[in-house]
Structures are given as C-alpha cells and as structure tokens.
C-alpha cells in the first residue's frame, strides 16, 4: 500500500515535471551549488530534478511493491521524500492560518510516511535482524563447543577405561602365558 503512493506519484512527476517545477524551484536553487560541487555536469534545473525525483519514486515504489530490494527501495523513497516535503509543504511560509494548518498537516503526513519507510527498511519480513542472528549464532556456537568438549571428555573417559581394561587383560594374558611357560619348562619332554 505504501508503494502505490510512490509508484503513482512518481510516474506523474516523471511524465509531467513542469507542473511541480515551480513549487520545487526554491529547493532546487538552494541545492544547485551542492550538485555542482559533486559534478559540474549534473543537471540542476528544477524540471530535470523533479523528473529524476519522480523516477526514483517510481522505481522505489515498484521495487517495494514487488518485494525486491526492499531495504534499498525504502531508503531511496525516504530520501526522495525530504526535498518533496520541503518543496511541497513549506507551512512556515504560509500567511493564512488555514493554509498554514493545511500545509503543516501535509508536512507531518509526509514525516509519517518517512517513518513508515524507515520501518519498511528495517523490516526483515518476520526474520530476525542481523544483530539477533549474530548473537544467536554465537550462543549456538558456544553451546556446540561446550557439548563437543563434554562429548570429547566422555569419549576420552571411555577410551581410558577401555585402555585400562586392555592393559589388565594383557597383563592377565601375560601372567597366564608366563605360568604356562614356567609349567612347560618343568614338564619332561
């Protein structure tokens, strides 16, 4: 459900960026020096940046909806919401109290969506997270090591008992053989 919003709105922004470019221009103009510092050939005009943001939202929405690369998709969408929210709902600029309230509601709604995206990025679809799996694996390895050591101790004990039995049997057989040899020497041939 969260992905549908981005797929639809991203598609619209990518197809018709001019409708949103005027609203985005204050943000894109402030980002222009940063974009130029990253690479001088990157686009800085508002219409192209709106189109790129729309394409990112469309791609992220489709990935999230299909369950493919959900963590990167959710993080991409959360990142795309920052300029969208700042450009689209600057409630701090509104003079009219009703307009300010409406823009604040939309701004906070977008923050809630970002929160949902962060949650989606952290969700492991019911599987435990990496930290839990690491602790569980370490605990399991420690348990197996203790069990193996105990088993080896038991086996060593059994081997020791078997060796003592074999030694006793060998000594007994040696005594019997020695007696038989002594008796055999005494008998006339």
Structural class: mainly alpha
Average pLDDT works out at 86
Contiguous runs where pLDDT drops below 50 for at least 5 residues:
none
The portion of residues assigned to helices is: over 70%
Major beta-sheet overview = none
Order of helices and strands: HHHHHH
Total number of beta strands: 0
The protein's oligomeric status is: single chain
Shape: rod-shaped
Q: Total helix count?
A: 6
Strand % is: under 5%
Spatial separation of the terminal alpha carbons: 106 Å
Task: Specify Rg, calculated over alpha carbons.
Answer: 38 Å
Textual characterization of the structure:
By secondary structure, the chain is an all-alpha fold. The chain is built from 6 helices and no strands. The protein has helices at 2-15, 18-38, 46-66, 70-88, 97-122, 130-186. The radius of gyration is 38 Å and the shape is rod-shaped. The protein starts with a helix and ends with a helix.
Q: What would you say about this model in short?
A:
It is built from six helices and no strands. It is an all-alpha fold and 189 residues long.
């Amino acid at each position: 459900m969260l992905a549908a919003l981005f797929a639809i709105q991203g598609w619209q922004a990518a197809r018709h960026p001019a409708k949103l470019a005027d609203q985005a221009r204050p943000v894109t103009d402030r980002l222009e020096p940063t974009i130029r510092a990253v690479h001088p050939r990157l686009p800085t005009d508002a219409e192209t940046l709106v189109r790129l943001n729309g394409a990112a939202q469309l791609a992220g929405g489709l990935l999230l909806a299909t369950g493919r690369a959900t963590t990167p998709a959710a993080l991409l969408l959360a990142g795309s919401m920052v300029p969208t929210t700042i450009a689209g709902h600057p409630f701090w600029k509104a003079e009219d109290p009703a307009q300010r309230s409406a823009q604040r509601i939309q701004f906070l709604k977008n923050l809630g969506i970002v929160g949902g995206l962060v949650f989606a990025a952290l969700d492991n679809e019911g599987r435990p997270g990496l930290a839990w799996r690491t602790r569980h694996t370490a605990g399991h390895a420690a348990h197996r090591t203790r069990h193996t050591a105990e088993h080896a101790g038991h086996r060593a004990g059994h081997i020791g008992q078997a060796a003592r039995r074999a030694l006793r049997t060998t000594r007994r057989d040696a005594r019997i053989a020695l007696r038989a040899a002594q008796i055999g020497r005494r008998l006339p041939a």
